[in-house]
Structure formats: C-alpha cells, structure tokens
Amino acid sequence: xxxxxxxxxxxxxxxxxxxxxxxxxxxxxxxxxxxxxxxxxxxxxxxxxxxxxxxxxxxxxxxxxxxxxxxxxxxxxxxxxxxxxxxxxxxxxxxxxxxxxxxxxxxxxxxxxxxxxxxxxxxxxxxxxxxxxxxxxxxxxxxxxxxxxxxxxxxxxxxxxxxxxxxxxxxxxxxxxxxxxxxxxxxxxxxxxxxxxxxxxxxxxxxxxxxxxxxxxxxxxxxxxxxxxxxxxxxxxxxxxxxxxxxxxxxxxxxxxxxxxxxxxxxxxxxxxxxxxxxxxxxxxxxxxxxxxxxxxxxxxxxxxxxxxxxxxxxxxxxxxxxxxxxxxxxxxxxxxxxxxxxxxxxxxxxxxxxxxxxxxxxxxxxxxxxxxxxxxxxxxxxxxxxxxxxxxxxx
Amino acid sequence: xxxxxxxxxxxxxxxxxxxxxxxxxxxxxxxxxxxxxxxxxxxxxxxxxxxxxxxxxxxxxxxxxxxxxxxxxxxxxxxxxxxxxxxxxxxxxxxxxxxxxxxxxxxxxxxxxxxxxxxxxxxxxxxxxxxxxxxxxxxxxxxxxxxxxxxxxxxxxxxxxxxxxxxxxxxxxxxxxxxxxxxxxxxxxxxxxxxxxxxxxxxxxxxxxxxxxxxxxxxxxxxxxxxxxxxxxxxxxxxxxxxxxxxxxxxxxxxxxxxxxxxxxxxxxxxxxxxxxxxxxxxxxxxxxxxxxxxxxxxxxxxxxxxxxxxxxxxxxxxxxxxxxxxxxxxxxxxxxxxxxxxxxxxxxxxxxxxxxxxxxxxxxxxxxxxxxxxxxxxxxxxxxxxxxxxxxxxx
Amino acid sequence: xxxxxxxxxxxxxxxxxxxxxxxxxxxxxxxxxxxxxxxxxxxxxxxxxxxxxxxxxxxxxxxxxxxxxxxxxxxxxxxxxxxxxxxxxxxxxxxxxxxxxxxxxxxxxxxxxxxxxxxxxxxxxxxxxxxxxxxxxxxxxxxxxxxxxxxxxxxxxxxxxxxxxxxxxxxxxxxxxxxxxxxxxxxxxxxxxxxxxxxxxxxxxxxxxxxxxxxxxxxxxxxxxxxxxxxxxxxxxxxxxxxxxxxxxxxxxxxxxxxxxxxxxxxxxxxxxxxxxxxxxxxxxxxx
Amino acid sequence: xxxxxxxxxxxxxxxxxxxxxxxxxxxxxxxxxxxxxxxxxxxxxxxxxxxxxxxxxxxxxxxxxxxxxxxxxxxxxxxxxxxxxxxxxxxxxxxxxxxxxxxxxxxxxxxxxxxxxxxxxxxxxxxxxxxxxxxxxxxxxxxxxxxxxxxxxxxxxxxxxxxxxxxxxxxxxxxxxxxxxxxxxxxxxxxxxxxxxxxxxxxxxxxxxxxxxxxxxxxxxxxxxxxxxxxxxxxxxxxxxxxxxxxxxxxxxxxxxxxxxxxxxxxxxxxxxxxxxxxxxxxxxxxx
Lengths: 396, 396, 288, 288
Description:
Number of domains of chain A: 3
Radius of gyration of chain A: 27 Å
Distance between the termini of chain C: 17 Å
Strand content of chain A: 15-25%
CATH topology of the largest domain in chain A: Rossmann fold
CATH class of the largest domain in chain C: Alpha Beta
Strand order of the largest sheet of chain C: 3-4-2-1-5-6-7
CATH architecture of the largest domain in chain A: 3-Layer(aba) Sandwich
Shape of chain C: globular
Number of strands of chain C: 14
Oligomer: heterotetramer
Helix content of chain C: 25-40%
Number of domains of chain C: 2
Shape of chain A: elongated
C-alpha cells in the first residue's frame, strides 16, 4: 500500500530524516494563502499515489505572484493516471548542489532487505542501474539485523560524501532503514536526496509502500489516516464497484467474461482464451473459499458488463467447495437472471454435491439453466475454453 | 538503579502485564480517603527502595475502619533500612490460589539474559533454589533474541499452568521479557505472580532495576519522574555529603582515613590495613581522572571526620595524573588545612611533576607539610600501610 | 518413492482446534494421511478427530514423534508457529494461510535455513503424495500415484495439471504447492532438486506465473538436472505488473514478466507447455 | 614473546581526534607502540600526531593493515565502535571507556565470539607488553620486560603488581587489564589460557576482587594449567555487596564474595598472595 508523499514525509520526520519545511494544503484558496505566507519562490507538488507526476505537470516551481495565481487552479484540475489532485505540498525551493538516490526494499530472490544508493539521483536511476551497475551500491541485510552507523558510513563514502556531510548522512541512512523495518515496509525511497548549496542534506522527495498484510500491527498508521487503498492506477466504474464488494477485478478489452476459481487459473485462463483466438473482457479472483453470495456478485459484474458476450466459468474446488460454487450460481440465476450464454466446468472438493444441487434445481426449473452448459472432470478445461471462444464468435 | 514498586508497576501495565487496581498515595490523609473510597479490605504497601519491607512491618492488610485509622500513621512513621516511607500503594486484597515466581536478569557468567521461573513464589524462593534446584526453570537467551510465545508456553507448563491460565501466562512472560530488553534492565521480578481463586493471573508485586549507564536512551523514564538514585541502604550524613559532591564514599567503623586512587586499590588497601592490624574509617573512590578540586574535597571529608586519626594516601597515576593529585592536596592544605597526620605515596603518570610541585610548595611554606610524610616508588605500599597503622595506634 | 511427505510422515496440525484446522484434519485423515496430533495453546489434553491436542509442538515431537507440520492459523500467528515448529525439530512445514506479512516470512525463511527445514507457503493449497499423504486443502479427486512430479505457485493449477497427468495415465509422485504469497518459504529450484533426487519421479512439471522472481531462480538448477522439466508460465497475455519504485527495478531487473521467465527456463533446457494438454504430448515425446 | 600485543601489532585508535584519544595516542606513541592510524567519522583525511585519520575501521584495515584497536569514545558509542572493529577484521579490541551499558556489552561479546575476536574492558586501563607496546592509559613507570604475566580487573592494582614484579627483578611479559565494568569483554580464564600458551610467561599473577563472577569462572582453567598462578583477591574485609533481587542469588549462587573466590581458586591450585610483597616470595618458592 502506497503512502502519499506528505504521509511518508511525516514518518521521515519522526525518524529524524531532514525534510523540507513544507505544508500540505487541501484547496486552491488554502494553497494561495500558505504560499504567500511562506513567501515565493515555492515548489508546488501534487499529492497523488502514482509515479511520473513530474512529467504529467504535477510539480511546478512558482517564482512570482501571477504565476502562483495561474498555477494553483491548474494543479487542482489535474488528473494524473486517473488520480485527481486533491492536495498539494507547498515546499521551499531548494538550492541544489548534488542529488543522490537512497532506497530500501526487499530482495525476494535472496530473502534479504537491501539498501540501495547511487550518487546520481533523479528519474534516470533505473537507466543508470542498467547501463552502469557499478554506480549502484547495494547492501544486503537480514530482516532482523540493524543497519549500523559504520554501514551508513560505507554507503556515504560510496556517495563521495565526506566531513560534516558524511556525518549528516549517517542518521539519514539508519533512520530510513529503521523506518522500513518498523513499519513492515516494502519500499522506502528518497529520490532525490539533495545536498543543498549551503551543505545540508535533505530528503526532497519521500516515497513509501507498506505491506498491507502487516497493517494489523501498525495502528498508529491508521490513526494518522493512512488506510487500506489501491496501490496505483485509474479505476473503471466496474472496477470501483468490484472493489466496494471486495472482489479483485480488472477490466480488459475483450468479450469473454471470465469467472474463474483462484488467481492461478485466472491468469492462465486468460492465456488459454488468447491461444484459442478469443479475448477476455476481464480478470477476476474469487479469493480463497468465497461465499455463495460473493460468487453471485461476481456473476452480476459480468452479466451487466455490456462488453461481455459469453461467460466462461471454471472451478476446481479446493478450499472453495463446489457445493458453495453451485449455490452461488443458483442465487445469481434466481435473483438476477442470466442474460448471456455461459459455459462452465467444475470439479474437485464436493463436486458431487454441487452437481446434485444443479440437477435438482434444473429439474425444478429448467428455464434457469437454458443458457448454461455445465461440465465436470470428464471434459478438459481446454475444450471448455475453446467452446467459450466459439460461442463468443457466434454471438457477434 | 532500582525503581519503586509503583513505578515498575506502571511499566508492567504498559507491557500488558495484569496488575492489581491499586492507587499510590502521598500522605496519611490521602491514604485514608482512598482506602475508604475503594472499600475495605485493602492491602497497604510501603513504597521503599529496599527488600524485606514485609518483615519490617511495611505491608499491612486492613480489614476494618479502626484498623485503617491505626495502621496508616504507623506506616508513614516507618523507616525501613534507612528509607523513610513517603508513599503507600493501596491495593485490593487478592484471593490467592497459587503463587509463582517469575523474573528476568543477566547471567554475567555466560553473557545471557535469563528468565527464571518457579512454581513456588514468595520470599522462600532463594532457599528453594538452593535446596531444590530442579524446582527452578532457567531459560537463557541472547540479548538480541526475542522470547517467543512458545518459550512462554514451555515456562508456563513448567509452572503447571494449563488451559486458559496457560494462555494468560503467555503475554505476561513475553511482556516481562520485552520490558526488560526495552529499558536496559538488570532485573525484573514478579514475586509473587498470583493465581487468584477465580482463575486470574496477576502480578502482585513488581520489582525492577535498570542500568544507570543506559539511562541516556530512556528519556521516557526520566519523564516519568524516575531519576538517578541510590540503589539501596541508609546513608550517614557524611555519605550524603559525599554523594552531593559526586564522590563514592562509605563510612566504616575504623580510624584510618583512606584516600586511595581508584576503586581497585580502594578495596585492596582496606584489606592491607586489616592485615597489619588496623581498621579503615571509610571506603572511597576518586573515579577516573579526578580534578584537583575534587581531590581536595575528598580530603575535607576525611579531615572533618572525628573518627579519623590518620590519613592514608595512595596514588598510582594512570588516567589520574600525579601532578593533578599533588595540586589537589595542595589546594586542600592551603584552603582547609590538615589537622591530622597523613602518610602517602604517589607514583606513576607525571609523578616527577607531582614531586616538583610538592617540593616547591614545601620550600615556600614548610608549615603546610608539617604533618605529611610522602613517598614515591622507592617505598612499597605495604610499608606505607604499616606506617599508617602504627601512626593510628600512636594517636590513641 | 516421493518427496517431502509419504505414508510414514508423522504429521501434526498447528491450529487443529480451529474451524479450518479441524475441517481439514478430518479430510486429510480420510485420505489416509498419518496425522498423529495437533496443537492449540491452552487446549492441551483435548482431542480432535480422535487425535490428541497439545499446547506446544515440542510435546508433539516428544510424545508423538511428529516430524511434519501443517499450519492452519490466522496469518498473524504464522511467524511464531513456523519458528516454533522449526526449533522443535520438525523437518517440513506447510503454511496454508495467506497474507503472511512479508517481514515475517523473511524471518521464517532465515530460521528454516539455519535449521535445515523445508517450509512451503504461505498461501499454499499444500502438498500431496497420491495414495500416501495429503497435507493442506487439496481436493484429492484429480490425483493418482504415478511417475511425474509437479510444482506450482497456484492451487488451482496444481489440480488442473494433476487432472491432466492422471487422465493421460502418467499419474503423480508428489505435487507441491509453493504458495501464492509474494515471499515464499521455498523456491522452485529447491523443490526441483528434491525431485531430481527422487528415483520414482521421471519428469517434473513446473507451473509458474507472471510476477515474482522464483521462476528465474530455477534456471541453473534446471540446466544441471537429468530429470526433464516441463514448464508452463501463466500471464503471457496479462497486462504487465507495476514495478515497485525504482528500487524494485534495480533489485529485480527484467525478472517477473512471463517472457523473461520462459526465456531463461527454455534456455536452461525446460520444455514449454502452453496448455495442460501439451503436457502428455511432451511426456510422450520424451519417452517418460 | 607476549600475549595479545607486541611491537608488530598494527594499532588503530578509535576516537583519535577526541581529547582523551589524542592525548593518549601521543603517550602510546612515545612508548614505542606501533600506532598506524585512527578513526573519527567525518574527519577522514586529517592527521593526529602524524598518523592518518579515517572515517571507518574498514579503511584502517585496508589502507594501513590495522589488526588491533583501542577505543577512546564516549560510552554510548562503544557498542557500534566495537562491533565495527570486530566486523572489519580487527582481532583485538581494547575498550577504555567506563560505564558501557550492560546490554551493549552483551551484544559486543556475542559478536566477538562469532568472529573469534578478543575484547578487553570496558573500563580497562589497557594492556602493556613492556618494551613493545602500551595500549590504553597505563603509566609505564612500573613496567619492565620479564617473565611473569598479570591479569587484573583494576588499573591501579595492575600498576602495583608490576611495580612489585619489576622491583623484585621478575619483570612482566604482558599485563592485561580486564576492566572494572560489571560485564566484561574477556574473562580471567580466557586470558590465563593465552598466558599458558606463551612460552615466555613462567607464572601468572591474577588479581581479582569482591563482586562479579569472573574469578570463579577461572577455576577449571587454573586446574588444567601447567604455568603456576598466583591469586590475590581484594575485599576480604569489605562489607558484603548486595544481591540483586532473588534472581541474582539464583543465577550467581554464592559467587561474588572474596571467600568464595579464594576458596575455589586455591582448590584449583592457585597460590594465594595477601599483599604485593607476597608475590616475589611465592615466585621464589616456585623457582620461577
């Protein structure tokens, strides 16, 4: 879960990492007032949960009053990769002598925490890492190991810091690392870490992502107003609806509605449809052991999607049982009704019971099942995928 | 540095260790008021920085109003091992089913933290440890290792706890251990840890000592009002005076005033005097590299002590230099004057310079040195010790 | 033969008294899994499905000779439960719960390495050695004893692969679910090496997917293996995942895409299957 | 021969730019100690007494081949300084400052064990190999090269013992100050073993005192040593120290009194000296 720059910066401050004396504002009026009070020139930074805001025009240096009056409303009207700008940070303009990159993240390959530093900060850091890997320093540590001052000194010297600046760097590096460990972070980055013309190190930007799965032990973040949120990207109305219902869902540009069980086959089923010449309309994950009600809602999302021509269902019951699956489908059929052809297969845990539920309901009301073809273990999933592609082509 | 029970208990509470719903009071009036409000019976516990307060009558169970009126002033008049009672804890009377001992301390021999538990709590625990060591469980851990829940369970089962009580015990043990580590403790003890008749575990007593040398990183303790203080024991007026001057000093019952350099020879010189048939009047430590002014004050303490018949000085200059030593003696001689015979030896770091200072001053004013015999490396310290004993006997 | 579990494994269930724990204990027992006991602190002395419950893993090892553990506990308790099992002498730990905090899993991994213990998961469906033992939440319908091993990050794909291998007559030696969490107790290469050492396993099917770096880690192992490896990677047509900051790109480079995974694994000698039905075709060609 | 330091030791001073650091660097150099450099973060590039200053111990090892360190820093910085030295490859660390937090010293000790490094102190006067090297704050007046090793918790007693050995013609191989803090980097037994392995050391004087448990730790070592050990314990007539809680009594038992120390050490074969002048008498008897 990504934090806003101003939230990350507040945490930086608590860990004694020097930050600009900026202020967050929530409206154009407040922005103008604060900028005038603090005095120009100022840097106005849009607060959005995505990268690339600089390129998108979300950061403006304002030198004069007329500029200020012009820039503020423009920033508040911006939408960056689908994120509307609702807050600005009003920062001092730093007199920059050098820029560095300093970050901490997780090296999953080697199961380590890794501190990364580069003497050339800014947006080109990834390019530098590719073309001149020797310019990047990586220090790997176990998750329960501290970063000592002497580790920080080693990094600082790699950044060609010396004297007082090297001493300033020590608590920045150890503070950033301690912050990372304290809050179960996945990423903390200072890019750029600025050395000002008068010799002060200051974290000019602050980026931080924490592990959603560890939020239960960080009540203080919740108290700061940092609540569960999407990592990044614009959401379609349907994606927003799905999120409200707690269903991981992504719109794609095809016409086959994917109703899979589990994220694994969710991803693979998408490939299968492509292999057989079709295109899925969505990606969806039921989560482990979904309730019948939740399954019914997943079907509602697909049935009401005008791009969907046919629904492709697949369930291999593990922790999610086939009887619950059948019940969910039945709730959908009875309460909402199916307006499109659906082809599906289910097998695995409690599949006989699922089958029994379907057969009984069909006997009672054959109309409900008029648009459904259902299969069990006897039919390979590849065949079902091909059938879905064929049906979608027929509808056209 | 030892904490008061009520201070330790506050920290216990912060670490989720269940504590009785007690209240601290500062005067007999407040005690009476609070005890009445809370309702009888109550346990009144004197707050003093020493053990054995139970035997000294510092803990009273009060069942009735007349008892209360009688007991409160008595407790406030108490002095336990030299500590006047200035605060009471007004506790509920617990209905005790079982009592345990649970403590954490440092095993210096093996460089470990050690958690100690015994199914038989109370004051007899040391006796139990001696006679039935198998009744004591010790769990050793490195200083940077956590105590896990499963460690706590192992200890709890050793205490023959089961079911809900075992579950209650887990956060008590891990909390106590975390508290110990968090505050650089030398000791935390719950004795007794009580199991009440209705099946609740509760820390009926709370004892804690923290490392003075680590107080710099525990500002929050200082903010709680926990400040540097004597570990335990009554102080004589002279000891109080020395403490004010920052000089480690202890009155003994002999007549030779000990003016040693360093704690090592301070202790050994005491033995020497005894070996040669004398008795020191004090123990004193100059600390590393004392200033001349401090040395002068040390001599004032001895010269003004009516029990002292002769002063025995010894200095082997290391970090404390002999020139400073000579200067300190000189300040004392000039500003205060010596009223008793003094025999001394100095050698080591800068001893020639010290000697020069003495010679010069003696030449200038031989009167100052009328009562002093001073020696250098040529005379063994044993001889000087014998001389001090002989002089003391002569004075009598 | 099999890897990691068989009929002689002495299995303990951590969290046996909970809803999922007791439900799946019954299922696993019904399959014939040799579950000997379970833990639930404070519930020592009870029984679940006729099996004794203890307060600690230490007792399970001492009293029942447990050597294998399946964890059914809320995610926040997994770190300590896994470390408890590792330190108590358990040699194989299956972490079924999902959403284990990443920092916790890093610590579990460190302890596992120190004590030479294999941990799979979190968020794994489990592991099954058909006809011998079934640990976790795997439905047994698709599995039959045979000669192909499987290893996958996804539960559902494990089932589909086994279904295919079973219906085409190959059957399975052992099927391992690595788990779907971002940081896992074991990696593909570690499981592949165990299959390589297993005489009964004549080929291995490895199923990966877009994201993460554990598929790429397997390339050197596959290059050195005598046992043939079939690889299937999901997400060839998935929208590319987002990188986490610059740091993510610096640490993981180009790893994580389906292309990157397929490229390095095919270069190492793995045989690519696009669909499940490709698998028996490849096995036949390989003469397995 | 000598133990721990000699004229070939390449000594670095941690905190060389501070008041005590620079003062004693000058003194140590004057004695002939082979100080090659010092550290002071942020002051790399300066010099003190003609010796280069670096930002880190790592550089001292790399650039100057430092293998021994003396720490002159405020107590709160000692933990990291010592761990830095240990991890950078220094093999012997002398901690001069006093009042090191106990928990810090426990961690330093753990790191030292892991990397097989000897640490002495905190609160030690240091160590001297007469005529070769003097590390710490020891005045050199009383020391002369010779054949007896000494180890003591107290600086002043180290001086008195050496004074006696020197004036009686025995002289010293190496004199080690263990330090006066409650938890120490090294213990008597560890230093005694080094003397046992040193051919030049014909006898060892061990001076302990009331309190603590490190004297008692030496009993098994003394029993096994061929080199004779003279022991002197201060505090026979001192008022007994206070026990810290019941826990202190349970962990340390009857250890810590002068009687307990003398009893176990004499039983192990050590020769007791009451005063310094007893020492040459005992040495003569032993034919040293």
